[in-house]
Each structure stands twice: as structure tokens, then as C-alpha cells.
Amino acid sequence: MNDNSINRRDFLKGAAAAATVFLTAEGLLKAEEAASSAIANVAGPPVKFGVIGLGQWGKEILTTLSKIPAAQVTGICDTYEPFVNKGKEIAPNAATFADYKQLLASADIEAVVIATPSHQHKEIVLAAIQAGKHVYCEAPIATTVEDAKAIAVAGQSSPKVFQVGLQGRSNLLYQHVQRFMKAGAVGSTAHVFGHWNKKESMRRVAPTPEREQELNWRLSSKTSSGLVGEIGIHQIDLANWYLNSLPVSVTGFGSIINWKDGRDIADTVQCILEYPNGIRMVWKATLCSSFSSSFTLFEGTNSTLIMREKRGWMVKEADAPLLGWEVYAAKSPCFDETGVCMIAEASKLLKAGEEPSKAGPELKTEPLQSALENFILNIKKAPNAPKIPGPLEGYQAAVTVIKANEAVISGTKVAYGNAFQLG
User: What is the CATH class of 8-31+170-361+397-415?
Assistant: First the structure.
């Protein structure tokens, strides 16, 4: 499966009377247009960026920044020269640095994006704030609660913009669907389920053993918060956001099933996060199977939300109350049922013999681009600049997954207690 299709039978069975609502609606398209207009009309010269950490994700960040007229990459940094050379291909006019301290000393850099391995964030973030830079720190902000707290406290006290790379919070689709969630379309949430599968080792090869160890920091418990920390944080943060709540405890399990290559990080993980009011989220991931990629479900008394990164669906219960906009919507067969298609131009698609749930537009703006544009809008203090995930949200998300990883390693239940408190 991919973002363009979904087979309801893969994960929802027995709701034959339900109706499917496709959520990439005209409201989402309007949100994309508004976001595009906001960044296009930002006043003044472009923000001068430095990017620290030029691995796979760092290169993605460079590529995305190159597409934003309001951004100018003036410095790039990595300790590994081949990565710097690749980065230079994307940002040919940027100064290059092997030491992040030299990049931070440059007066030609206003804002930095920190995309180094997670366990290296603290030292660089604190130095960047001390240097008077706006800071965008990738998630998780740290791999220990102590480091995460130091980063969050520094971020809160900084006079500059501090944003955490919880890009789901900038995802225009997620923001759009969150309005349905907030309005009660799901009813009372009963259960949340997160699924992430990808058959790969995550191991990277390098010319020397030393470099290979550096590249494979995700596979060591000394430097990584495991699959739940490096992968699950985005789906789990979505649950924190949509539920407007934080978990009280977490039970975890983990095993090395397939990739027995010396790693001590589980390649297959299950977590049960307990939220107030008896709500639980089950999050599972494996590097042993690619079945169904990734999705997140919010199951409620009125309907179930099915979320992928660029597409979302709502499956209504037969006894759910009628929502006002349904009477105006086009109806068509959707996943073997009669569904309400909340999609721009649905009627035209039906007349053309197309199935709106498959033919409709999906989110066109990558969430990373939206996140970086929001960062810029806040730096520029643009009118109505969108709310960004800041130090507190970054800290809460990090603590959630750090403790979840502790539960996975121990195979026990871990209470959060007062761990979410910064004071």
C-alpha cells in the first residue's frame, strides 16, 4: 500500500454499515493556498540559514530550503567531508564548515537547522542559542530526559525562535483533520493505533569501522532511543496532540527478530501507552515486514479516523449522528460501501466515471516544507504566523518516547509521574 490507496479490510472489519468520508477536502486545498500565499508575501530579505548535519535527512532539509524563496542557505556543516561535498551540490553558494562552532560564529547566518544524530543535539542547541541564532532542532530533541530538559529550558528562555521538528504539527492535512477531531466528529475516542512497517536493516555501510559506527548510531542503545524514539515519535505526538493529553504510563516489548548483526536495538517493537480516561494507544513497528507501510487510527464511538501522511479518511458508525455538511456532499461507492466523499470536484469526478476516493487530490505540500515555512514566518514575525511546536511540545514528545523506549528495553510498565514537568 501507499498514500494513494487504502484497503479498509486490512485493518477495519465488521463495520458493514459504515460510510467512508474522504478528508482531503476543499478546506484542505484552501489551507494549502493560504499557506503558500503567506510565505510568498513574507517581507524583507530571505532568512540566512545554516544546516548542521548533512546526512540523509540533512540533505532533504537542504533540498527543501532551496525551494523556499524566503530562505537562503549560507552555511552547511558536517564532520564527514563526503557529506559536505554532497551538500555543496545542493547549496553551491553556501560556506562549508567541519566544526559547528565556526558556523555559529558566522555573522552571515541567522537561523540554524540541527539535523545531527539525536544524542548530539544538546551541545549544539545550547551553543546555537548562546550564539543568538534562531533554532530548528529535529525530533527527538534528545535521547535522555536530562538532555531534553536542558534543551527545552534553554529554548524557553531564548529571545529567538525555537522550533522542534515535529513536522506533523505543521502538516496541513493533520491540521485540517484535527478540526474534525476537535469538533467531536469521532465522538468519544476509544482507542488509538499506530502502525509502522518497513523491511530494512537501517544499517549503513562506510569505508572504515569507525565511520560505520558513527553512521549506525540508531542501532546502539548508548546513542539511540530505539524505533519508538526515532520513528514512533511522530505518530505518538499526533496522539498527544489530537487527544490533547499526555500518557500516564507505558508498557513496552521489543525483540531482535531478523537483523541479528550485533545491534542491541530491537527491530520489532510494541508499546501500549495509557492516557487518562481509560484511553490507550497501541504503537507497533517492525523492520522485518513492509506490510501496509504506516498509518494511525483514532477509533471513536461515532467514527474512525484513518491517517496517512498525505491522506485521511473517516469511517462513520451506522448509528452516528448526521453531520451538517453530509447532505450537500456527493455520494459514491467507497471501499464496498456507500460513502460521502469530502473532496473537491467530487461530482465532476463521478460524472467522469472516476472514484473520488482514489482519484482525488492529496496533500501537495510536503510537511517538512510547511514546517520550515512556519519557522520562517515566525522569525519574520509575520501577521498571523502559525503556532509552531516549541520547547514544551518538543520536551513532552521526547519524554513520551524516551520512557516508552525504557519500557521496551525492560519489557515492563513505566509510569511517567511528573516527568513531563519542566519546572
Answer: alpha beta
